[in-house]
Amino acid sequence: INAEYMGWLCNQSFWASSLGRETAFLTQRRFRSSIRVQAMDFVEFLQRRVRVEDYVVIKMDIEGAEYQVLRSLLCRGAHKLVDELFVEWHFGEFHGQGGGHGHFRNESVEMMATLRHYGVFVHEWT
Asked: Within 13 Å, how many C-alpha atoms sit on residue 45's CB side?
């Protein structure tokens, strides 16, 4: 994911996050504050810091961006660096980079099957 920032917002009883270049989703929720932080390319991070011999476990809860990150992981061959993956899948509308694309249960099932085919031990985290 090459987003300019990740915003974390808080109101009195609800935490939310958004990943992307737009702040429309963030501001329409009327939160008190936001913090801009630099985002990173997760696949590049793995490729620079992990060796195939390492045992790598990832817990992923990234608010709908998991589909894009995992596709990138597969396309760039970085799945070979991951041994075990715990993913919280998000369905419905995602207001992050690319804005508003809904994901469906079958996409997560297909992604898990593909990752398992390539030797990644995938767990669904709820």
From this structure: 10
Polymer length in residues for the chain:
126
Q: What is the pLDDT of residues 8-20, one digit of tens each?
A: 444 444 444 555 5
Rounded to whole angstroms, how far apart are CA atoms 74 and 117?
11
CA distance 71 to 26: 25
Provide the 8-state DSSP code for 4. Answer: S
Average pLDDT over residues 61-84: 93
Please tell me the pTM assigned to this model.
0.68
Distances (CA, A) of 25 to 40, 93, 120: 21, 11, 33
Q: Is 25 helix (H, G, I), strand (E, B) or coil?
A: helix
Nearest to 51 by CA among 23, 80, 77, 26: 80
The DSSP call for residue 30 is T
Query: Residue written as tokens 């429309």?
Result: 24
